[in-house]
Amino acid sequence: MPRIVLHDYFRSSASYRVRIALNLKGLAYDQHPVSLVAGEQQSPEYKALNPQGFVPMVEIDGERVTQSLAIFDRLDALVEEPPFVPSDPPGRAHVLALALTVACDIHPLNNLRVLRYLKTELGQPQEAVDAWYRHWVVEGLAALEALAAPQAGTFLYGDQLSMADICLVPQLYNGRRFDVPMDAYPTLLRAEAATLALAPVEAAHPDRQETAQ
């Protein structure tokens, strides 16, 4: 097996996704913590590795891969089981749409750099920043519930865990940190519970990381 280094921050949603993915594939990895609070992602040393200055990034025998969904795809090519997307084209497209609803439509509006910009550059009070966060999470989760429900089973797509579930779990974790109500999303909660019951997923939880602060 290759040597894998994960550059991550314990509470980053995208990093949490990648820890879940690595654990599900049974891949050992070394963690290199990058503190988003301390701004280490913007250091010259880190940006020389990842010009975006984002986490996560994985190094696979020196090959650098950024962006969580691209990392999922790379891990699928590295280890076949369990697959993160279905093999049938309609199922694959549906799972990708669910995952992208989280990764592209909900999460980017609510990550740390956006919240900091609202507060520092635009001078918004913390109450307004929190309201911004909750608004976009609620809107996104309502859409995700409606998209997933018709084809959901134990997980968001039937009874096979997929990258959609891997994206869901960190999003709900962070939503609860901002007091987003979850009762309106029974499909999402069912899939979350099934995913969290898996030992590799439990081990990826932010509170289980040695770097948790």
From TrEMBL:
Transmembrane segments: none annotated. One of its GO terms (cellular component) is cytoplasm. GO terms for molecular function: glutathione transferase activity; maleylacetoacetate isomerase activity. One of its GO terms (biological process) is glutathione metabolic process. It comes from the Bacteria. Pfam families: GST_C_2 (PF13410), GST_N (PF02798). Residues 88-213 form the GST C-terminal domain. Keywords: Isomerase. Residues 2-83 form the GST N-terminal domain. NCBIfam families: maiA (TIGR01262). Belongs to the GST superfamily. Zeta family. This is Maleylacetoacetate isomerase. It comes from Sphingomonas kaistensis.
